[in-house]
Amino acid sequence: MNERDMDAPGTRANAPGGHAVAMDGFPPAPASRVGPDNWYRNPWLRWGFLNRSKLVKGTPVWRGAGPVSVLPRAEGGLGALEVEGADGAATTLDALAAACGLDAMLVLHRGRIVHERWLHMRPEQHHTTASVSKSVLALVAGILAARGELDLARTAGDYVPEMASSAMGDATLQQLLDMQAAIVRPPMATRPGAIGGQDGGVYEILGLMPREPGSPSDFYEWLLAKPRHGTPGSRFYYDNGQVEALAWAIRCATGTPIADLVSELLWAPIGAERDAWYACDETGGEMASGGLSTTLGDLARLGELMRAGGAAGSRQVVPEAFVADTVRGGDAEMFARSDFGARMPGASYRNFWWISHDAFGGFLAVGRYGQRIYVAPGAELTLVHFGSMEGPPPHPLDPLLGRAYRRIAQALS
Amino acid sequence: MNERDMDAPGTRANAPGGHAVAMDGFPPAPASRVGPDNWYRNPWLRWGFLNRSKLVKGTPVWRGAGPVSVLPRAEGGLGALEVEGADGAATTLDALAAACGLDAMLVLHRGRIVHERWLHMRPEQHHTTASVSKSVLALVAGILAARGELDLARTAGDYVPEMASSAMGDATLQQLLDMQAAIVRPPMATRPGAIGGQDGGVYEILGLMPREPGSPSDFYEWLLAKPRHGTPGSRFYYDNGQVEALAWAIRCATGTPIADLVSELLWAPIGAERDAWYACDETGGEMASGGLSTTLGDLARLGELMRAGGAAGSRQVVPEAFVADTVRGGDAEMFARSDFGARMPGASYRNFWWISHDAFGGFLAVGRYGQRIYVAPGAELTLVHFGSMEGPPPHPLDPLLGRAYRRIAQALS
User: Fold this and answer.
1) Most B CBs within 10 Å: which of A3, A11, A51, A54, as the mutation test of the B interface?
2) pLDDT in tens, B337-377
3) Per-domain residue ranges for chain B?
């Protein structure tokens, strides 16, 4: 036995019966393999988040040739901070993170790491960001718009002729960024493993489930099949299709894959510590709505970028006006009327970011199963975490995490 | 039109009729898509080499957190150097590189770049290394052996019980490294796209071709199906199975995926400029015999490592004795008796490297379709190139490349 005989982080924890380790051995024991029937439960869910590229085809996002932007460390540690636990009684931040099934957490105050927990992964590992990917695409759109390469007032159909007659063809790019295209999800097929509400068809496209005859083979086909509902700009309707439509428009406007744009416009300028990675469909099209994997440190760099109004050091990476427009928030009344109104009272949505409108000016990028960027400029706070929280959203522990963020902001203020 | 409307390098060149650009547009035009019927011809072959991760699942190889080892540039340029062309008449090195379908070439003299040509790719792009991957695995084995984690005198069956009763079970790891296990390739199925002689089944495992019923689903099953032939140590038999068997033994000896070993033992210590990438089967098992993609610069760093007897700067990365044992060469008589004897007169094979036994002490790592490391210590030369040379090996232009290497070595001596 040597140190390499230890379990890889993130594989042996939280196994709810059955085989306790995902992909265990060479070759992996049959019961430990990640497949259509188990990928959405731990330990397989976590393994899949940490090893996305072994399950799904994709493409790296080059970090560029420049130096890594260092995230300095400060004295601190919030692990013992008292927060509200699942039973309503007080617990510690560390205990809450473990109870939620988080994989790692970083808290930065004034740009310095004051708390870090690596529960089920190492700092250099990739983890899926899920819908945090959406918030990243928005920044690309904001940069391109300021450069005159994209007009957010023009429609999806203006940029992509194939979309013109589709349900989202008459939505402006700004309406897509605000989840206001006039679309609705088609009825979900009920299949083993077909959990997850809105994402019908996506798992088949990514090859995580066998494709049923006639189901879409790529994200282009998939989004063109969205049925029409109402008129654009009349309701907040959170759906991956809005994001994939914007991604398609951006590809056509620039002639460039999304991965190359994220590399050039974000990953290189922020001094990312590692190449990121996008899941792709069989055409090589990146899943812009949920396919990005990164390190947790690079997620923190994105959060810090937003906290600094789009600047990384002395360089303005995302236009300050676009960040300000995002942070100002979206149509609060429209949001209140949506499915999310009761779940997130007082919040709004703008440019693929969630705006808390809390006492700290907080805003978030949110990904299913526990992926998060929370930025609270009023507390000079950036908090990021990855998770493998089982079950369909909304997760019952999500509100606890939200209250913990504000507790941390208070403690640091 | 802006600069992004330019063709991506490596897609529009050398198209032999048909659609001139691989994966052209968003979504790609049907005739431009890379699939089972066209992947082995350009422009699709080249696109697939430059975008392997979009076609095949895989895993990144972390470069580590350390600084990039700089490859300094010197005055020079060998593009106009006179070499022998395809018609026997004199031509220039640049013209030969283009005629061969090379994608990029770097020549280093005394550790400095004296010549570089980027024909169909950018310096930061990944390219498949094909069987150069074998030579990389050998270095991992050499390092582990010196650390006492691997005993090259023990057999594959000693390390992997499942292999004990297989055709390669009684081969020592050293015999595997020298391609001397007692195996033979099963008869090849004749299918469209099933070119490539020795690699029957591999394309199905990687998902590049539809899998036929009953064919192996991963590299473990695949290598266990190799028929027995003769006794170990009696003949040189170049085959991917020998490499996959060694990879399996290494995984079992260390409890660690090959990608993590390459990261820790090679990519980090040599100061690689970018994460590398391995193609994987559906178990997440790396294709150690041909699945590694890297930048050309990192291939040059590997060549320089070998030229320096296994040292990168002041750090001994690969044991000097292992490099010396490799460069000394293998059983020349056994090699002469093999299929390769006539093709490479005077050469031998040792530790997954080809030894030229030329006037410059030259040795090579060789990958199908034009991937190469040529190191000539006598001329203080390291030469690397990537290619998309169509057709099954041996390629008719290969001997010209070999003569060009020695011409370059002469010119620099």
Assistant:
1) A54
2) 999 999 999 999 999 999 999 999 999 999 999 999 999 99
3) 3-56, 118-412
Q: Per the CB < 8 Å rule, is B28 touching A283?
A: yes
CB-based contact A23 B254, cutoff 8 Å: no
Looking at residue B185, its amino acid is: R
Q: How far is CA A75 from the centre of its chain?
A: 29
Tokens of A230: 């109402």
pLDDT tens readout for residues A243-252: 999 999 999 9
Residues from chain B contacting residue A66 (CB–CB below 8 Å): none
**For residue A121, what are the CA distances in angstroms to A130, A385, B182, B285?**
17, 11, 42, 20
As separate numbers, helices (DSSP H) first and strands (DSSP E) second, chain B gives: 14, 15
Residue A7 has pLDDT above 50, yes or no: no
Dihedral sign computed on CA atoms, order B304, B307, B312, B317:
positive
In angstroms, rounded to a whole number, what is the distance separating the alpha carbons of residues A343 and B358? 74
Buried b (16+ CB within 10 A) or exposed e, A220-246: bebbbebeeeeebbebbbbbbbbbbbb
CB contact under 8 A, B27 and A283: yes
β-partners of residue A382 are A108, A375
Q: How far apart are CA A23 and CA A196, in angstroms?
A: 23
Q: B72 and B113 in contact (C-beta within 8 Å)?
A: yes
If you average pLDDT over residues A288-296, what whole number do you get? 98
Give bridge partners of residue A206 from the DSSP assignment.
none
pTM above 0.90, yes or no: yes
Domain B118-412, classified CATH 3.40.710.10, yes or no: yes
Which residues face A115 on adjacent strands? A107
